[in-house]
Every structure is written in C-alpha cells, then in structure tokens.
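User: Please predict the structure of the protein below. I'd like the answer in structure-token form so I can feed it into my own downstream comparison script.

Assistant: Understood. Taking the following sequence of 80 residues as input:
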Amino acid sequence: MPLDKFIVDFYCHELMLAIEIDGITHGSEEARERDLTRQARLESLGVSFLRFYDGDVKENLQVVLAVIENWVHGHAGTSP
C-alpha cells in the first residue's frame, strides 16, 4: 500500500495504522536503518506501526492477531 512515498505491507486509514511483516530481507543493518527512517517519517505524519517477524505470523498467528486486536481496541476512537 503506497503511503507518502513509501510502501507498507498493510494499512488502515481509519486507524492510521501500518502493519509490517519483516522477513529475512529486513535483517541487515542497512535494511533496519531504512525501515527505521521510513517508519520515523510516517510516524511524523501520524501513522502508528505494528511490526512482526514473518516467522511469528507463520508460527504464532493467533498471538499476532491478538496483538493487533488489543492495539485496535486500545486506539479505536482516538484521534492521532
């Protein structure tokens, strides 16, 4: 999903929430630095982030979904 000049994995405009699923390509220092720079820019625009490792999504999906659900319940109806 394009957001500003960046691509995020999933985005909910209503909640201003980006969800990122990080795989092996995010493991290098250079990739982490790019991710943090991009995240900081989008957070400056009011976007919140939830970040998960792809292994957690594959192996612990119920936990990932619970984290997302808890975040939504804690932030629904609040303004950025």
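That's the full token string. The chain is about 45% helix and 25% strand.
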